[in-house]
């Protein structure tokens, strides 16, 4: 190296030294403590899952035990004892599944669905994917539920077709929950404004349970109350219809309700009479129809009877004059 | 079975060192400046310690909760509860060894001590004056609050079919809410409360009722279903008991009448709300095989009765049990209807 080159090199070193801060020290190796904390976490997990596995085994839950041993075996793959425990537990599960399936099928053959169900549930607690046990349980439940439904449907059908056979007055009040629900449901429909559908369903219930006086009283009172509401709103014809339905649904004499209906009939009849009087000035035919309607509501309405007779005579007379003039 | 039998050796150890260093340093390091457009970073990924066909065992990284782990390893954050249940139900902590079930290990919910059942709650009407079939707004709100605060998962009725088929598990405290008939109060009272909790529900509508005094109208139903929380499904045309034959009704006429009771609301709901029919509520809870046959032909998957009880995986899908919630009962009675597990005697 020449002197000049040596000088240049020295200058560079000096310059670099001036620019540079303290030289960076090599990064220390990763702390040992965090690594051991992870290993400690793994070791703790192994211990916890092992403990759980032992607990499940002693509690007679091999399926849960096998799941725990599986975790331990994955975390501690070199542990031959763990592997052996896992294999042994799985073998015990397979044997128990076999035994319980046999027991369940035997119970099914003997017609003991309850015992069969218990055995099949045990199979599935050990082997949740066991298709045979799943099918058996589904069949058992379907048969059980179909029986419940058929019994209920038969009861409803029998009541409807042979009302006299149902002679348990007050059965709804005696705690038949489903029957009580049937009434409530129909009443709610009716009260919510489905008057036509609700009445139809209420009649269906009464037809099916003609001797259930408590239910009939409740249903009739609901319908009567609805009639009062309608009358207060001026819907007199609907109110009358509801009063009459209430009396029919009640099935027993209800003098107050009947009197209310009769009073309303007279009122409506009078209204149609008045409308007829207005129409009579210009249209005899229309007046006749209105007075006929008036008399349908109150056949004893003397004014409507007289005016209808008068109008019909006048109409006949008019027809005769028209025929003579042709 | 095992794909990786030596989880903590060689390169695994190096990765673990790096991960631990990141975890340890993460709290005090000054983050390097990031370009403004860089998307928000996902939580750090913890190392997989071991796995086989059924399980992955990982160490949770900072910010990884059960849902994040489910998203990462199962591709579906809503399966976070699988991870929670497998790991004892507690909160996932950074650095914790977490077992991740890669597939549903017990989709039918049968255990050594009993089996899971799904209660389907049945409401009718809501209103200020309580009666058997009318639940007050305050009572309904209290019931929903109880569900929310006590770890119940309110699931749509449509998901019950997956559970019954054994395909998909449901969380252990799953409950279904249904509202029968189509009263307007479902929209005015129940709907705001359901929205508040994000609870799904199915309204069962008998189609002749629409337009009556206190009934829902189509616009209200459309608004509810548009949210994705409420489903509207058929409950017959007239609400007549479908098992009851009319006097002197022939088999053919009965079948034809029942067919109308089934088809009419299905058609209307499809036409007005563009919703497929997946379930059917039997008026008065009564059903027979003729009705089931007609529903099956329509592609309906489940039918609900009013026979009380929860539904195990083995329940007959066309005759599911439902628990009616009555307005004249208290919160304790409501709690008793939440039968989510049936204990079996002995082992």
Could you characterize what this model shows?
The complex is a heterodimer of chains A (326) and B (347). Chain A is mainly α and 326 residues long. Helix content of chain A is 80%, strand content 0%. Chain A is built from 13 helices and no strands. Chain B has 347 residues and is an alpha/beta fold. Chain B folds into two domains: 48-101, no CATH class; 110-343, Alpha-Beta Barrel (TIM Barrel), CATH 3.20.20.370. In chain B, the strands form five sheets. In chain B, strands 6, 9, 10, 11, 12, 15 and 16 form a seven-stranded mixed beta sheet that branches. In chain B, strands 1-2-3 form a three-stranded antiparallel beta sheet. In chain B, strands 4-5-17 form a three-stranded antiparallel beta sheet, with no helix packed on it. In chain B, helix 2 crosses helix 3, helix 4 runs parallel beside helix 6 and helix 8 (251-273) runs parallel beside helix 9 (289-298). The two termini of chain B are 30 Å apart. At the A-B interface, helix 2, helix 3, helix 5, helix 6 and helix 7 of A face helix 1, strand 1, strand 2 and strand 4 of B.
Characteristic key phrases:
heterodimer; A: 326 residues; mainly alpha; Serine Threonine Protein Phosphatase 5, Tetratricopeptide repeat; 13 helices; 80% helix; B: 347 residues; alpha/beta; TIM Barrel; 7-stranded mixed sheet; 3-stranded antiparallel sheet; 10 helices; 18% strand; disordered N terminus
CATH class of the largest domain in chain B: Alpha Beta
Please state the second-level CATH architecture of the largest domain in chain B. Alpha-Beta Barrel
- The CA-CA distance between the termini of chain A, in Å, is 153 Å
Largest sheet of chain A: none
Q: List how many beta strands of chain B DSSP finds.
A: 17
Radius of gyration of chain B: 25 Å
Q: Given the C-alpha coordinates, what overall shape of chain A results?
A: rod-shaped
The CATH topology of one domain in chain A: Serine Threonine Protein Phosphatase 5, Tetratricopeptide repeat
Question: Please, what is the average pLDDT of chain A?
Answer: 84
Provide the residue-averaged pLDDT of chain B. Answer: 87
Q: So what's the oligomer here?
A: heterodimer
DSSP, total strands of chain A: 0
How many domains make up the coordinates of chain B?
A: 2
Order of helices and strands of chain A: HHHHHHHHHHHHH
